[in-house]
Amino acid sequence: MVTDRNGLRGQLVERFDRTTDGGLLRLALEDAAQVLDLPPASKYAVSSEEVVLALAGPCKARAVAVRNLYLQFVFAWLTGNGDLHAKNAAVLEGGRGGWTVAPVYDIPCTLLYGDDTMALTVSGKVKNLKAKHWQEFAASIGLPERAAAAANKSALAAAQTVNLAALPFAGLPLNGAERELRHRRGELSG
């Protein structure tokens, strides 16, 4: 965390699309809208399944890419991020060529603003997701059951570290978001 000259706090992050191995190297980043040849305005016009399959396609380790993208979507749901659309999921070109899934970015908790939906459909739904929808999603993208269960476990562990109370919200928005996240975590953990 950093504080600017006006006393406002923010998070300083390191760019993942740059490397300084003997000089500055800019790595190519292709988001799902670009890979699917969609204009930015159509970033909500695809499903999570379409995003995963399109982004995993150019990756050398396709199975790993599918698992990592599944993990990004399930983590978004577990943390109340309803903004994981086709411009916020991407692949990154490695320094030696080849593509990998880009680290997750732009991860707001939209529950705090009254939005309890996912940006893209998961197994045909944007809200009221249940464990069965995540199982269907995993199957539709070719993620084996055991790999999906392991990803769910990892996402649940990471989501437990999220502390919404550290954000500048109180009362109903905070209490409602925390209640919904507890429900989602309980739903996925069975």
Automatic annotation (TrEMBL):
Gene Ontology cellular component terms for the protein in this record: cytosol
GO molecular function terms attached to this record: protein serine/threonine kinase activity
Membrane-spanning residues: none
Keywords noted in UniProt: Kinase, Transferase
Occurrences of domain HipA-like C-terminal (ranges): 12-157
Keyword Nucleus: no
Record family assignment: Belongs to the HipA Ser/Thr kinase family.
Protein name: HipA-like C-terminal domain protein
Organism: Pseudarthrobacter siccitolerans
